[in-house]
Input
Amino acid sequence: MGVTAACGESRSDRLKRQMEYEAAGKKKKDPANPIPQVPPDPVREELRPVLSKYFHSESDYLPDVLDDDIEVTDEKFQYELTPGVLSTIRIKKGLSKPDKVRAILKAVAEADSWAFRKKSRRDYAAQIEKVKYGYGDEQKDQILHMYADLKLLSFFASDEAAAAIEELPADVKGPVAAMQKEYLDNKEEIWQGWMDVKMMARRVVAGDEPFRSVLRTIKKQLGQEEPPPRTWMDSMGPEFKEWAAALEKDEKLFIIMTNMKDLRERVEFTGDTHGLWLVEGSPDIPEKAKSLDPGADPEGVAVLREDLGGGYNDLTFVFSKKLKGDALKGAFLYSMIYRQLLSDFQMLATAGGDFAKKGEDGSIDRESSIVPDKYDPLYARCGGRAALDTLIKFSGSKYSLLSGVRPKTKTEDKILKVAHTCVIDGARGDIKIPEKDDEFDVQGPAPGSRLALFQMLARFEDIDTSAMAEEAPKTEEDKNIEDLEAKLKAIKERQKGGD
Output
């Protein structure tokens, strides 16, 4: 009689999978320091019918639970987790049984993220390490704790939750049922907690296990999902669509306006733009941007900036309804440059020396040689206007999209001076301005910012500034700013002359 397998996985495949799981979870035994055996915690065992439904395990394994004297910051869930494939959970001593039930439910959900998963493309620890070093400890901790909340929300919303809770002993059934109600009643708040993690940090983990599965389940159960990408054209209000289409078709001008020289980078940007361009009064302006007042801005453009992490921003531009025709087009082009300059590392790094502090011994503190984050929009605004004026002056007749747009300042030297003065006025009190009677200062106020703007503007004259990248001064100790400007001027003259 022939035998047909009940499923597609052979015995050898199942054995191999079990061995992989066990190997991933084994701790190396040290004869001199044996691994202590932890007796099963009685409350954990009472909760097993529920815990086993959402903890990822190829066997009946559940994380060890210990009562311990620990310091906790979260009064709702008082536990500590030692992460890993074989996680250990420490519960604060002296908790009431309902509070211990809550702590174990949440801790096991967090421990589930560390369980070995064969389908993971990358080790979870590697994902978390990438978040830590790319986005900081705060984002890392948010992601670790949010997984537990998402996992519990997913379980409590599932069809199997009620049956599992029904299997529990009476003295733990009540606290678990209460926790289920709490999670389901607050599902919007829990999801918002996930949305509060910076988008780019979320993306590090969202596309791989363990997050991928739980996010897909929540989408099916509750309809909650990550915001879909918004394309370049979808980001535009009706007033801007024609100009946006023309800009996208003109590859060279698009590169100038975005500083995206790599084709792949441009394709990613136009496919997921992280921005909105809308005129005041548009029904599409998000609630959080409705208080913006574009009339108070010299360019007639107000900006809401949301930090997505990793140097990315989500920007909402709201334009004054008074702007019409070529004036509105000019403001649109300015906004594109503003967007790029907001995270122009080279410009901001070169200007950083103007904010350096002196130590008690008079030496420069190099760690303070950075432009404070609060001034990033200032450099983008001052530099954006100067860059647009420069582009019009040197290329106004070269690109049809620039037709009709008028510069505010026309001469090259004055464009730089106006931008430099704009930065000094906006950062006054923090930026370097020498005393009037300082006879030893020969560079003048904010020399790093002047060079940064000068260097940035060269790109809008279609000048290759790559040769200058390694020569930017980092602190006020550098005395070669005039030499660097002279070198850049020489480069510009050679390129203009076709040398």
In short: Residues 139 and 299 are 35 Å apart (CA to CA). The longest strand covers residues 301-309. Residues 137-156 form the longest helix (20 residues). The two ends are 87 Å apart (CA to CA).
